[in-house]
Structures are given as C-alpha cells and as structure tokens.
C-alpha cells in the first residue's frame, strides 16, 4: 500500500486523491437563477443523496481555482442558491454528458450556459428556476442549509420538493425508478467518466429463515 497523511498533502493533492477514490460519482447539473433573471447551469459531482425525511442531498461547492480567470471567486451556483433559495438538480446521462461538461466552463456570471451548450429550458412546477428538458430526471429543490466548512468550500444541503422523470423511467404502480432503463453517467477522476450499462444484481440475504430477502 502507498500511505498518505492528510496533513502532509496540498489541497490539490487531497482533491485528486479523494476524488479518485470516490467513484463513480453521480453528476448534478444544477440550474439556478441569477439576479438578472438569467438561468445558470453548472455540473457538480461532489453530490449525493443523504436522506428521505426530510428529502435531502448534499453538493460540495468550492471557490474557482487558480486554473480559472475567475480564481478566488465564489461560483455563480452558490451565489444564486443563497440569494434565491431555489434550484433544480438535473441528472446527467450519456445523451447530455457533453453539454453538461461544457456548462462547467468558467463562463462569466452574465452568460447563460444552457443556451451556449444547446440545452433547452422548460418551466418547473413549484420553483421559479427552470429545469433542463433533455435531462432524464430533474428534482425541483429548495435550499435547506449552507454549511461554510472552510474559506474555500461550502456544502449545500438541498431539499427536494418535486421530481420529474422521463415517462419510460418510472414504474407508476410500484412507484420506483426503472433502474434498468436509467443510465446515469458516473464521474471517476478528472475528465474520466463511465457508463452504467453493465449491471449486476446482488440482493442482501436474510440473516435467518424468517426474514425476507431485501430488494
Ligand atoms: C463533471 C464536473 C463535475 C464538477 N463537480 C464540481 C463539484 O462537485 N464542485 C465544484 O465546486 N465544482 C465542480 N465542477 C466545476 C464547476 O462545474 C465549474 O466551476 C463551473 O464553472 C461552476 O459554474 P458556476 O459559476 O456557473 O456555478 C465540476 C465540473 C465538471 C465538468
């Protein structure tokens, strides 16, 4: 094994070692509204579901780094979510991976990335922020809490208020996602992504005969 103590690593080294260890990560393409009413979109892979009551998920947002012409600035997504309290998480599958990644360019705050990359905005039901039509799944969300964990990074806790699924993705009787039809893209390290077509099914067995297998 190769060993590292966190204290001896630079922020950049920590970033690459941590993000390279946690994969594949889902990608949230977050839409939010700027103070000028323009819709902003940006991808975030420091993202995951946390609980269902309340229905919370977390997104880690750092400052623009020294590779950017906006170095040290807060990201528009964080500013918009804090100011407006609403946003939409659009899930990313292979069909929209390219445009979603292009939304990650450090566009100036007054540029609407969505139009620039060729995606389409449609109105949401319960929040003022539009969702992305081409996304297979979209969650309309309200801000639950922002944790400013350091000078560089904030963790946004979002609460899902409504969800949209492409029609073929939901079994309406069971009220479940047809996971065999949903093919989210996963992010590995840096610009490396993976498809999720190749599946294996491994039910958790019951501890004794009286129990039922968990599905
Ligand atoms: C696939 C992908 C995932 C990303 N994940 C994150 C992330 O989890 N946290 C973060 O702060 N930036 C992340 N970024 C970078 C932001 O998307 C990028 O800084 C973007 O320009 C922010 O836009 P905004 O200023 O409109 O919010 C990611 C970029 C890509 C391409």
Q: In summary, what is this structure?
A:
The protein has 215 residues and is α+β, with helices and mostly antiparallel strands.
Structural notes for this entry:
- The chain is built from four helices and 13 strands.
- With 215 residues, it is an alpha+beta fold.
- The protein has a single domain, classed as Pnp Oxidase, Chain A (Roll).
- A hairpin with a 4-residue loop joins strand 8 and strand 9.
- The two termini are 35 Å apart.
- The protein binds flavin mononucleotide.
- The site of flavin mononucleotide has 17 residues, from strand 2, strand 4 and helix 2.
- It comes from Sinorhizobium mexicanum.
- Belongs to the flavoredoxin family.
How large a portion of the residues is in β-strands, by DSSP E?
Answer: 25-35%
Q: In CATH terms, what is the architecture?
A: Roll
The CATH homologous superfamily corresponds to Electron Transport, Fmn-binding Protein, Chain A
Shape assignment: globular
How would you state the average pLDDT, rounded? 94
For the record, the count of structural domains works out to 1
* Chemical compounds bound to the protein: flavin mononucleotide
Alpha carbon gyration radius: 19 Å
Q: Class by helix and strand content? A: alpha+beta
């Amino acid at each position: 094994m190769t060993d590292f103590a966190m204290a001896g690593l630079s922020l950049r080294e920590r970033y690459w070692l941590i993000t390279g260890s946690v994969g594949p990560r889902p990608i949230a393409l977050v839409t939010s509204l700027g103070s000028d009413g323009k819709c902003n979109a940006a991808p975030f892979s420091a993202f995951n579901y946390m609980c269902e009551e309340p229905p919370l998920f977390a997104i880690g947002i750092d400052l623009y780094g020294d590779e950017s012409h906006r170095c040290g600035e807060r990201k528009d997504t964080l500013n918009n979510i804090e100011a407006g309290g609403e946003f939409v998480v659009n899930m990313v599958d292979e069909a929209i991976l390219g445009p979603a990644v292009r939304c990650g360019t450090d566009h100036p705050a007054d540029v609407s990335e969505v139009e620039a990359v060729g995606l389409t905005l449609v109105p949401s039901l319960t929040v003022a922020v539009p969702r992305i039509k081409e996304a297979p799944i979209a969650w309309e969300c309200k801000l639950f809490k922002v944790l400013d964990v350091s000078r560089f990074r904030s963790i946004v806790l979002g609460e899902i208020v409504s969800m949209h699924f492409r029609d073929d993705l939901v079994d309406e009787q069971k009220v479940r996602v047809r996971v065999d039809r949903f093919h989210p893209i996963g992010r590995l390290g840096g610009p490396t992504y993976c498809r999720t077509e190749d599946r294996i099914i491994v039910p958790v067995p019951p501890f004794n005969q009286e129990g039922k297998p968990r599905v």
